[in-house]
Amino acid sequence: MEGGRITTVRRIHPAWAVAAVTFVALLGAAGFRSTPSVMLQPLHDEFGWSLGTISAAVSVNLMLYGLTAPFAAALMNRFGIRRVAMGALVLVSAGSGLTLWMTQSWQLLLCWGVLVGLGTGSLALGFVATITGRWFTRHRGLVTGILTAAGATGNLIFLPVLSRIVESDGWRTAAATVSVAALAVVPLIAWRLRDHPSDLNVPALGATEIVVPAKPAGGAARNALRALRDAAKTRPFWLLAGGFAICGATTNGLVGTHFIPAAHDHGMAPTAAAGLLALVGLFDIVGTIASGWLTDRVDSRILLGGYYALRGLSLLVLPSLFAATAHPSMLIFILFYGLDWVATVPPTVVLCREYFGESGPIVFGWVFASHQIGAAIAATGAGLVRDQLGTYTLAWYAAGALALLAAILSLMLYIGKHLPAIEKLRTDPSDHVGSVQPGT
Question: Are residues 395 and 267 in the same domain?
Fold first, then answer.
């Protein structure tokens, strides 16, 4: 009591502490996953391995990064977020640290491809969907945007630092740095990350009741595959997965992989083109957080339609913007495109939760897997176009058309938004564990 008045101390909801720890883990995972890009040439120089051989480890890493997500989400349901996150960081640390003693190329494939791929894949966007789905009912879109932006922030922080370490002290020092950094996050996860709000006897942020979740029956792999089987019987899943596959194709697969060589074809120095890509990452942080804020206020289907349409139009213009220098028109493209880079993630996460209920994070993991598959196809396809035609122009136009198609798929979701995502497929209640819930 103060001055005759009773004062109430408002405590910060523990969901914010969980989000902060998750942000740190995601920040590190993004940096750890990007490390091979600065080690390609040093490994080639020391061991004589072809860049194709070294790149194969990166390809395995990328594929596992996407395909691990739904299984990691199911493991989090089964064994808890904290245990899975800690295990993932240990895998990253082991994968990076063991490269210090490698002598054969298959060991690189095992360490950076498999171990680091599995570890970072467990800390991918499926991890984000699980955290926001359990801990937030209010501000869910905004928090999803902030956590998604951690990926771009991690790249911006780690790539320059690791590049300097490789240049001054060698790739082994960089690998050891990643190994130690991954382990350093484990105690933080153990200290502050909790699986459910009920573990602290509080409701989710924005909720009024404490919900004690039932432990899912069956194995994690079985539940992940069952969620895919049930979701695949629905129209919303294919519309979301199709749009997100195009999202991957038009970002990581095409621009992330081929922008620098395409700019070099027009006389731009690789360092200048790399600087433009860094600007994309910078604007991506702003765009993704803003998208999360909008997701809490605007129908996610309309947002997706708008994002994909604007991306498609920008890619159709891009071929005419390439030049030897970064003129103002190209800088405007970088600003515009960067804001839209992964702005699609918050509304996609929210829609998976809306259509598939408690299975939403696992289903989003499968939708994210389609993103990585789309990226892999586009990365290879654009390279083939360049080899056959001597220019990337057709690849840019094709990507623009695909993005416009993704906009149509998203608007199809809006047209049918009052239809249920899935009918009741079974009559045996015991067979519904981990299955897709009816949409709204």
Answer: yes
